[in-house]
Amino acid sequence: MCARYGVTETDRQVDMEKLYADRNLQISTGKAGKDFAFSEDDTLIVSLDKTGRLRFWDIRELTDETNATASRVNSIKVDMPLLSLSTASPAEKSWPTS
User: What's the whole-model pTM score?
Assistant: First the structure.
């Protein structure tokens, strides 16, 4: 982070409004997520929602090196999972333990 987002040597709080204005990168899961995990190479996120649906998201576009070095990034939204799996019957709720 840099001083443009309010980060200094003594104050490590980020001005989120400025950061999101320059770097609006989103993953839209649709439902409230209960848990998530990143792949080892940071190209995939796995999310689990409260209905027990396990979804795999391709986030390579969000983690592209050009986004890290650019001063401003066009808005990017990932809203279609690569794969969805149901971990429970529709009548059951899933309660992650992490």
Answer: 0.61
